[in-house]
Design brief:
The chain contains ten helices and 15 strands. With about 300 residues, the chain is α/β, with parallel strands linked by helices. It has a five-stranded mixed beta sheet with strand order 4-3-5-15-6. Strands 11-8-12-7-13 form a five-stranded mixed beta sheet. The longest helix is centred in the first third of the chain and has 25 residues. The protein starts with a helix and ends in a 12-residue tail after the last helix.
Length: about 300
């Protein structure tokens, strides 16, 4: 039995949800996949998969074995990549997870320039606002906003993650701009609806203050809040990478600029996150270095955010 081939077949069956999808993914007959799994279970002396006419699921031992199999195959793939990348320019497949709105605004416009610099790198980009599992999703790299708590990953800071209180010029002309955080309680504040904590805005500056805000709009989408603020509905607390261009164009105006604002604790940073075994990858380093240089220090979206 070819153990690595059997491991690949086992992982493909689990991820594909069946023997036929695994066969299509691997380019082999379903019967071949079945024989590999049967041989693997026989060699281990235990059942890894529960089979029925409608589904294939992991047994208890199968769940544990699947985690080991994914890690082993990932380590082998990384070892192969390190050897293949050791000479010549960065090349090969780079799988990256990106936050949806940030990617649309600041990654997507940069892709053609990156491709011109590194024509031998193939990008596989997945957009998701979830904190993805790098191992389980077989990702080389993820861009994360805010803070990174996992000690099992390498986190390289690529830009600050500042939040600003903004409103349209029309709103400020009609209702006035708050001169202190305490005055926010008298304003229509547009907030996120993820958790109750998103209506508690925290400030550091001349002092430490927390203000419970409320208003006529709550949503789980930052771009809706941005559009509502531009339309004069009220005040918003949004990251500078989202509203920097609006501030520069005069569509939004920063208020309470002498205060550092956040939704709780430290606003954190924008990080490139990868597993320790990808530290030496030329493709990972090329992508991260490219973003750092493109964003700048301070990043280009903060050019007019203090106006």
């Amino acid at each position: 039995m070819d153990t690595f081939a059997a491991l690949k077949a086992f992982v493909a069956v689990v991820e594909g949800g069946g023997f036929a999808p695994a066969g299509r993914q691997m380019g082999v007959a379903t019967s071949s996949v079945t024989r590999q799994i049967d041989a693997l279970e026989k060699s281990l002396g235990t059942q890894l998969l529960n089979r029925s006419t409608r589904s294939v699921t992991l047994t208890g031992l199968g769940e544990s074995y699947f985690e080991h199999a994914v890690r082993i195959l990932g380590d082998l793939e990384n070892a192969n990549l390190e050897v293949s990348e050791s000479a010549g320019p960065p090349r090969g497949l780079l799988r990256v997870s990106l936050p949806v709105t940030f990617a649309r605004l600041h990654i997507a416009p940069a892709i053609p320039a990156f491709a011109r610099l590194y024509p031998e790198i193939q990008l596989d980009l997945t957009l998701s606002d979830d904190v993805v599992d790098l191992v389980g999703e077989r990702l080389d790299l993820a861009i994360r906003l805010g803070s990174v708590e996992a000690s099992s990953v390498v986190a390289r800071r690529i830009a600050p993650h500042r939040r600003l209180v903004c409103a349209s010029p029309d709103y400020c002309d009609q209702w006035g701009a708050p001169r202190s955080p305490a005055e926010l309680s008298g304003h229509n504040c547009l907030t996120f609806s993820y958790t109750r904590g998103n209506s508690l805005w925290r400030f550091s500056g001349p002092s430490q203050e927390s203000v419970r805000v409320s208003g006529s709009l709550r949503t789980n989408n930052s771009e809706i809040l941005r559009e509502a603020a531009i339309g004069g509905m009220g005040l918003v607390l949004l990251p500078s990478w989202l509203v920097g261009a609006d501030i520069e164009a005069g569509r939004l105006r920063v208020v309470l600029s002498e205060w550092e604002a956040g939704l709780g604790g430290n606003s954190g940073s924008i990080y490139a996150v990868y597993l320790p075994n990808r530290r030496a990858s030329k493709t990972v380093r090329a992508f991260v270095d490219f973003l750092v240089e493109r964003f700048g220090a301070p990043p280009y979206w903060d050019a007019s955010s203090d106006a």
